[in-house]
Amino acid sequence: MSRLEHDGGEISGTTPGVALTIIAASTLLSMSVWFSASFVLPQLTEEWQLSPGSGALLTVAVQLGFVVGAVFSAMSGMADRMANRVLMCGGALGAAAANLGVLLAGGLWPAVALRFVTGFFLAAVYPSALKETATWFRAGRGKALGTVIGALTVGSALPHAVNAAGGVDWRLVIAVTSLLGALGGVLALALRSPGPYPFPQRHVTLGGALRSLRNRDVVLADLGYVGHMWELYAMWGTVASLLASVPAVEDSARPNVLASAIAFLCIGVGAVGCLVGGVLSDRWGRAYAARVCLLCSGGAALLLALGIDAMPSGVIIAVCAFWGFWVVADSAQFSALVTERADPDYVGGALSLQLALGYLTTALTLWGVPVLVQHTSWRVALLVLAAGPVLGVAAMGRAIARDRRGSPHPRVSL
């Protein structure tokens, strides 16, 4: 190995900046399969005669598959034994293949099974990307993690960009996103070495995960994450439908195409939000930055709920963009809180448990929001989504108060 410099050095010719660029690009491409079926749901609903509740299962299945995959990866020790770049590659290729299989599904339940497998494989991509990023940065870690989650955000919105081309058959959207996902996996192999600050090798156990809940700081971080996830994926998964109901969009010549184009912007702007959230967390602290983000995103959801029937179309679109900016800006901070506050012996289990709780939560709102819209209104659905940030703000407020009192919490040495 060549020289190793503190906070910004290089290993085997790879600098932290180059490594971050590779990780972010790989994540962006790999995660394009996450919402690929959800974003072509109007076409699938017509072709397969789906109800709103059954159509939502195509997205819920990905979330549940991700939970199972993440827990399996952690508990089996695979996440410790295999290089992050290898896990990213294998996960992306597996997810791309499963996503491509939707072309042959022919109906709801085979597609749901394939979407579950897609989520299972994606669980090897996202956590590995965050872990690999953390090994390259000590100073400025919040901003670096925000960059990767920003890439995930744009990747999740990519199917909207493909769909916004107009007149695109759903099969082409699935095929293109599958190709992008596979390219992302191959790109991960461009990382030729690990970062200079690897995490300690600790085997994750279920007992360790549960024992981490004895730590109040970890519990508060988990509650904040659950509140954040209650809102995040439901916003991403349904904002196009919300925009399609806006009068200016609904009355346009091609409402679905226009809604997809605006939704891509409203979700994609979250990439900038992730960078801002990372900078705020490095300057102000994780809990304080997360609370600011939750207040802004929850406030946007509440404002839409109260004014959606009275606000001009342009204002609704602007508020949706503001919502998309802040709704993902705090994603990295809850995991960072756990790595900093959990007992080092339990940190792996604590992170796995947090991930499982968060993504199980998304399954509830991804299924529930379309059902609420169908049987009540967008106003009710948005009020329900705003409840998540309320929980998160309360949890982060308690975390900040504990910090001010100087409550002791163990830290992970890297």
Please specify the SSE layout and strand pairing.
Blueprint: H1 16-30, H2 36-39, H3 41-48, H4 52-75, H5 78-81, H6 84-100, H7 108-122, H8 126-136, H9 141-163, H10 170-188, H11 206-211, H12 216-244, H13 247-250, H14 255-268, H15 270-284, H16 286-307, H17 313-327, H18 331-341, H19 347-375, H20 378-404
Helix pairs in contact: 1-8, 1-9, 1-10, 4-7, 4-19, 6-7, 6-8, 6-10, 8-9, 9-10, 9-14, 9-15, 9-18, 12-14, 12-16, 12-17, 12-18, 12-19, 12-20, 14-17, 15-16, 15-17, 16-17, 16-18, 16-20, 19-20
What is the residue-averaged pLDDT?
A: 86
**Helix-strand sequence:** HHHHHHHHHHHHHHHHHHHH
Indicate the low-confidence ranges by residue numbers. Answer: 1-11, 410-414
Tell me the β content.
under 5%
- The count of helical stretches stands at 20
Query: How would a textbook summarize the main sheet?
Result: none
Categorize the overall geometry.
globular
Describe this structure in words.
It is a single chain. By secondary structure, the protein is mainly alpha-helical. It is built from 20 helices and no strands. The chain has helices at 16-30, 36-39, 41-48, 52-75, 78-81, 84-100, 108-122, 126-136, 141-163, 170-188, 206-211, 216-244, 247-250, 255-268, 270-284, 286-307, 313-327, 331-341, 347-375, 378-404. Helix 6 runs antiparallel to helix 7, helix 9 runs antiparallel to helix 18 (331-341) and helix 16 (286-307) packs antiparallel against helix 20 (378-404). The longest helix is centred in the middle third of the chain and has 29 residues, at 216-244. Residues 1-11 and 410-414 have low confidence and may be disordered.
